[in-house]
TrEMBL record:
<feature type="domain" description="HTH tetR-type">
    <location>
        <begin position="38"/>
        <end position="98"/>
    </location>
</feature>
<dbReference type="InterPro" id="IPR009057">
    <property type="entry name" value="Homeodomain-like_sf"/>
</dbReference>
<feature type="region of interest" description="Disordered">
    <location>
        <begin position="1"/>
        <end position="40"/>
    </location>
</feature>
<dbReference type="Pfam" id="PF17925">
    <property type="entry name" value="TetR_C_20"/>
</dbReference>
<dbReference type="InterPro" id="IPR050109">
    <property type="entry name" value="HTH-type_TetR-like_transc_reg"/>
</dbReference>
<dbReference type="InterPro" id="IPR041642">
    <property type="entry name" value="KstR_C"/>
</dbReference>
<feature type="DNA-binding region" description="H-T-H motif">
    <location>
        <begin position="61"/>
        <end position="80"/>
    </location>
</feature>
<dbReference type="InterPro" id="IPR001647">
    <property type="entry name" value="HTH_TetR"/>
</dbReference>
<protein>
    <submittedName>
        <fullName>TetR/AcrR family transcriptional regulator</fullName>
    </submittedName>
</protein>
<keyword id="KW-0238">DNA-binding</keyword>
<dbReference type="Pfam" id="PF00440">
    <property type="entry name" value="TetR_N"/>
</dbReference>
Amino acid sequence: MTVTAEPTVTGDEPSGGAAADRRAGQAAGQGVRSRSQHQRRKRIVQAAAALASRGGIEAMQMRTVAERAGVALGTLYRYFPSKMDLVVAVVSEEIDLLEGSIERRPPRGGTAAERTVEVLMRATRGLMREPELAEALIRSLLLSDVKTDFSERMTNLMLRAAVGPAGGVPADDRRRVVARALSSVWTMEMIEMLRGQATAEVIQARLEISADRLLTD
């Protein structure tokens, strides 16, 4: 009768159960680190937004942001290599808030043009609650060399309001081109408002005319 030796388990080769436990522990540790990093990044962005809302983009000094967020300056630079990277992150945070608002309370206008203008005016009112922050964000869009998806996200928001889910609208579709153009018009109107050369009522009237002309076949 042949006797087959059982495999030997050494300290360097953990059993299947022990190895699984170790992998689970590593995954849990990575999850905790990921959450911690996300929370740290969010604190930094919120600190930057708070500073910008009181003193504009000039107030967003990297050392001041780090102190307010409670992180080391080196840590801040690991997350955001430049000041403009940080400004772009604040812009993205503002768009997140707008997207959440639109999802909770979709525009109710009877036409595509009316719904599109409602999206833009809600963005206007949201930004103008903090004029210094609004100016910082608009300036970042005009002056930053850092790539931002602001225009694309605004375009998708308007398309969703005007025609439904924007994912099915091709890049060269006339409606996407028109929505992108309206986003540019809105940005310039915001500059007029920040300079004190236009009121919200005047901007809305201009946007209504633009949207009606562009969105009506």
